[in-house]
Amino acid sequence: SEGWLSRLKRGLSRTRVNIVGLFSGGVVDDDFLEELEYALISADVGVETSTRILERLRDDIKLKGLKTQDEVRRALRDELERILAPAEGTLNTDQAKPCVIMMCGVNGAGKTTSIGKLAKRFADDGKSVLLAAGDTFRAAAREQLAVWGERNRVEVISQTGGDPAAVVFDAVSAGRARGMDVVIADTAGRLPTQTNLMEELSRIRRSQEKAMEGAPHEVILVVDGTNGQNALAQVRAFDLYAHLTGLIVTKLDGTAKGGVLAAITAMRGDKPLPIYYIGVGEKLEDLQPFNAHEFASALVG
Ligand code: GDP
């Protein structure tokens, strides 16, 4: 079957003005550079970052004497890689025992799917994993987690209609008592505009601190890559209430908006949130560590 990298490439090539398709072997002139800037903005790199990239490319063209579109393409790929590289990061579950990972995001972002994929990864690495079904709103979410758990021989702690902070507190306490390696706490999907639900997120966070000093060790926002620039607003809002330590960006196999990773990375200056994984499909193996070089290459060919 088709590899994840080519699926990622196919998704990213769906820009209105396809970046890869721009490099047709023609001349490098002002028209070409303007089209390139427009293509970057269309791919949701963001206006500011796109303008900065173009400034650097124009400098390169002058100073390094780049002549062909292929040389410009390579300079663009290097520039994107340079922007994205600080966001590479490894999710280290050995930092504590159990390592408590809190997951949050809006509904439909791919949170439950990503938790399943993560649990499988950890279980495959020989780690014992406990899942806390902190999404006490949707029965379907609990059932989905239970299915994942069974499939991967991972226990799920849940409570119908319970208080999510209490469920998560119990799970972290149980994880400690049983000497588990990893506890993953799911939380119900919520929108940044739902202030009371966002405040609940702080409460769920605090209940983990109460159950174990230093917990949660990781707070990961799962964000849908097809949301483009809207993803930036989500990162800001969730960070405010939950203090994020990292991101998982999903659905990059189906989007032309992959440039948003550059925008997210540029948002925090020289200290971007690590993008631990990217989602490139619905199957278990479709959660891949984020690699700046691979991603920049997929974006511009
Ligand atoms: P949640 O509401 O955040 O828990 O979202 P779900 O995990 O239920 O995912 C919503 C939908 O997105 C499901 O149909 C998933 O199969 C799909 N999905 C999740 N991650 C990816 C991905 O990386 N690529 C694709 N193509 N679909 C995904």
TrEMBL record:
SMART domains listed in its UniProt record: AAA (SM00382), SRP54 (SM00962), SRP54_N (SM00963)
Principal subcellular localisation of the protein: membrane
GO biological process: SRP-dependent cotranslational protein targeting to membrane
GO molecular function terms noted in the UniProt entry: GTP binding; GTPase activity; signal recognition particle binding
Keyword terms of this UniProt record: Cell membrane, Cytoplasm, GTP-binding, Hydrolase, Membrane, Nucleotide-binding, Receptor
Entry-linked InterPro entries: AAA+_ATPase, P-loop_NTPase, Signal_recog_particl_SRP54_hlx, SR_rcpt_FtsY, SRP/SRP_N, SRP54_GTPase_dom, SRP54_N_sf
Reaction equation(s) it catalyzes: GTP + H2O = GDP + phosphate + H(+)
One Pfam family hit: SRP54_N
Single GO cellular component term: plasma membrane
Superkingdom of source: Bacteria
Membrane-related topology note: Peripheral membrane protein
Subcellular location: Cell membrane; Cytoplasm
Annotated binding of GTP, by residue: 105-112, 186-190, 250-253
Domain SRP54-type proteins GTP-binding intervals: 274-287
Function description: Involved in targeting and insertion of nascent membrane proteins into the cytoplasmic membrane. Acts as a receptor for the complex formed by the signal recognition particle (SRP) and the ribosome-nascent chain (RNC). Interaction with SRP-RNC leads to the transfer of the RNC complex to the Sec translocase for insertion into the membrane, the hydrolysis of GTP by both Ffh and FtsY, and the dissociation of the SRP-FtsY complex into the individual components.
Protein name: Signal recognition particle receptor FtsY
